Amino acid sequence: MKHLQVAVGIIRDPQRGIFLARRSSSSHMANKWEFPGGKIEQDESAEQALKRELMEETGIDVIHARPVGEADHTYEQVHVTLHFFLVEEWQGEPWGKEGQPQRWVAQKDLIADDFPPANHQLVARLVAGEL
Asked: In Å, how far are 13, 49, 68, 127 from 103, measured between CA atoms?
């Protein structure tokens, strides 16, 4: 079974808004909301991948990212390890560079079922104010 390592950025503004992007209708977990990020390449650390992916997907330059946990999840054909980072310092204004719908949502208003299952535990921590 294929194993993917993925860096995930929880972009949070000073008002505790969280930046989300919607997965494309043709992708795995289609139309679910997600925290931006992507695959960690063989020669990258999780933080290096995070910075590269957030620049590619949202146009921001990450100044500081804090690791806040990992999650493992097995889907039908792939095992995924998500490396979560809280991003509260960046330059630029995040937007959907790849054409994906995006929005800001108050941290307390996040709904776990709107996300792929691998994100549910982290979303619960955010809603509970643990992060």
From this structure: 12, 22, 22, 17
| Three-state SS annotation for 84-106 | EEEEEEEECCCCCCCCCCEEEEE
**pLDDT(3) > 90:** yes
Q: Are strands 61-74 and 37-39 parallel, antiparallel or unpaired?
A: unpaired
Residue-wise pLDDT for 75-104, tens only, equals 888 899 999 999 999 999 999 998 999 999
Cα separation, 88 vs 70, in Å, equals 18
| pTM for the predicted model, two decimal places | 0.95
Q: Check residue 72 and give left, alpha or beta (phi > 0: left; psi -120 to 50: alpha).
A: beta
Rounded distance, CA 80 to CA 92, Å? Answer: 29
